[in-house]
Design brief:
310 residues; Glucose Permease (Domain IIA); elongated; eight-stranded antiparallel beta sheet; 2 domains; Membrane-bound Lytic Murein Transglycosylase D, Chain A; alpha+beta; two-stranded antiparallel ribbon; 22% helix
Length: 310
Amino acid sequence: MIKNLKESCFTLSFLTALAVSFGLLIIIGSHLQHLPPPAFNSDGYWVLPSPPLERISIFAGSHNSQNADNTAVRFYSTTLRQGEGLSLLARQHNLQLATLLSVNAVSDLGSLSEGSEVVIPNQDGINYIVRRFDSLATIARRFEVSEDLLRTVNRLEDRPIRRGLQLFIPSAGLSSRDFNRIVGSHLSFPVAGNVRSFFGEITHGLTATTSHNYGLVFSTIENQTVHAAADGVVTQSGFHSSFGFYVVLDHGHLQSFYGYLNRPALGINSRVRRGDVIATVGRSGLGNGRSLYFSLLKDGKAVDPLLFLK
């Protein structure tokens, strides 16, 4: 009888602990990823409000021919899903954004949206249409690659090239003028990963409550590199109890905020270019090491980053 009583007590204790844990998960889940909105104070600094105590979160174009791939170029297509853009696809496939812009003949990033078909090559480079009086030798000199490499990548063998033929130039990039004309005011995705939490009102399934998410939360891997979404200047860098180590960049018309980082190496007033590594994803603040918190301010108000990320 004593043995049975002990077993019953153990079972009761285990079930009680399990129930308590499940209850905590419900509470945590109801506030997951939804922190108060960042804002600017009168001095122009990003204000990071501390969340209420009841809010809990558990995560919270240049080229180099020496790096050219000596294999024939291959292409496959995919479709943009919600929360994706060319810059994110480029990072996921270890390609330069300029490569996808050129291969897909993109003249305006704003023309791409959910459902758009995107062609992805197996290596970096750009498309080039052979012009009148072009020869393989002149094209090779222009882009500083070898004729043999152009033949291999494009499967030319000994066939001559002709006007109007489309070639793939490995490791080549778009000119700064062409790149900036296409990209315009759009921002690049800051990290390789998927958007796990979107901007706006979100209903929590377990509690049927709603809250407002003032940024995006990307699901990624620990120590993943975090990149500047556009050219800018570091205006703030520090630590916050909820956002952990963070960096704020001023892009002129927009300000971007990156949280849940490892300690950033950049100092205040550091200038960065689009795509530069500014930090890595870390276990700081309420971050679990596999998330990046990303927020944008326009005219001092939080806006949906997906309206600008391409």
